[in-house]
Structure formats: structure tokens, C-alpha cells
TrEMBL record:
SUPFAM superfamilies: SpoIIaa-like (SSF52091). PROSITE patterns: STAS. Residues 156-267 form the STAS domain. The keyword Phosphoprotein applies. Keywords: Phosphoprotein. This is STAS domain-containing protein. Pfam families: RsbRD_N, STAS. The keyword Phosphoprotein applies. CDD domains: STAS_RsbR_RsbS_like.
Amino acid sequence: MKKHHNLLRDHQDRILGNWLQATTDTSTRINQLMSRDELQRMCSQFLQKLQQGLEQAGAPDLQRDGFAGLREFVQHLATDFAERGVSPSETASYIFSLKQVLFPFYQDDLDSKHLAGASWEINNLIDQVGLFSFESFSLARERIIKSQGQALAELSTPVIQVWEGIVALPLVGTIDSIRAKEIMEKLLESVIQYQADIVIMDITGVPIVDTQVANRLMRTVESVRLLGTRSIITGINPAIAQTLVQLGVDLGQLNTKASLRAGLKQAFRELKLTVRPAKGSQ
């Protein structure tokens, strides 16, 4: 019986052409995101890795060492698709479509005695590759989501050095227990990094300030104080002030200001700094 890799090698140009045509005829995002040259290069490399694997592994089993090159290629392919927004089902369907492309060539080259067995072997191998691509895609998506989560966490606690000895932390959005922990850790790191004397925490963008949020702010202020740094809470508007009074939250120990501007002026006064217009600017 003709070996799989020999069959792929003997018809490589026609198989590539038919698979490329089958891929471009579908309406998946793969076609929308990749040019025909990119698709041709991808299909060609895939077939090359598949043929090499079949020749080196000795059997159509994806777990064999001979298929290491194909597994690595599929991992890169799945990662690239995940980053481009292609779905896992589209990724797997692209690979599964090769079965339909290959079958006519097996029909032409093999007699009826060997056709069924050879077709089952190559289809089973392509199924393994398709499932492997699904697993690789899932791992890639997890890495992307984790990376995006870390980026969002960084953006949600932007500590800014606004002046020598003064850092500001403008808070936006809901503060739950997990985020409160991140805020405290990031703020304490920044206090040490910038050798800050004063921290301004602006809560203008925090939609709800209740007992829990106030307690978390006070714990953060107390932790900052232990490092020898003073804190100013800004952004407490009349509505928030009334809410805190109704809740019985005692902010008497905190230095509070209505606006970030007022907080910055207070910080300048405490550090005995003065900002004056430059000469000739008036």
C-alpha cells in the first residue's frame, strides 16, 4: 500500500491548491483576516509539517516524536488565530476541511482493499490535529485574558507622581475587596518608589462610597501612615458626605478635600511649596 507521506508528496501541489480553494470558499473570519498569500503560505507549511511527521513518525499518531514539528506549528497557528479573534470552532473546522480535500486523492491512488483503512488512519490523524488545535487555542485565550486582566489592573490603579514628594491615585469604578487589596499594594510600592511624603487619593470616579469602601480607604490610609507618609482624600462631594454621615462612617481621622485641585494645594502647603506665575507671563 502506498504510504501516506508518499501520497501527500506526489500530489502536494494539487492538494495545496484544492485546500486553498476550499478555505477561500468558506465565509469564516480566517478569510476576512488573511490575504490569499498568507492562506497559501499557511496551508503549504501545514501540509509540509504533516508530510514530514508521517514520514518520520512511522505511524499516524500525533503524540509520536516525529510529529513534534506539526504540533509546534499548530500551537503557533492557534495562538495567532486567538489573537486575531478567530473562534476555536473556525480554527478546528479549517483543519478538519483537509479530510474532504484528501479523500479523492486516496480514492485515485489506492485500491478498494486498502482505501477504507488508509482513509480511517489519515482522518483519525487530522481529527487529533483538530482537537490539539482546540486545546492550544484554549490555552492561548487563557494567556491573552490573563494578560488583559493584568493590564486592566494596572490601569485601574494608576499611581502618578505629580510633584517631588507627592503622588496621586485617581480611583475610578467600584472598589471591592480584591481591588482594595491591589490598590493598597500598588500604593505602598509607589510610596517607597517615589519616596512620597504625601499621597492624594481622589475618589471622584468612585460611584458608591459606603461603609465598606470607607473602611477600605481608612485601612489604606493607615498602612500609608505606617510608612511615614500623610494622606489626603479628595473627591468627596456633598452627596457622598451626606451618605457617609447617614451611614455613621467616621472620617474624622482622615484629611479630606472636595476636589483634587484642593487636595494638591493642601499638599503644597504642607510641604511649604509655592507655585507662582513665571516672570513676564502676566
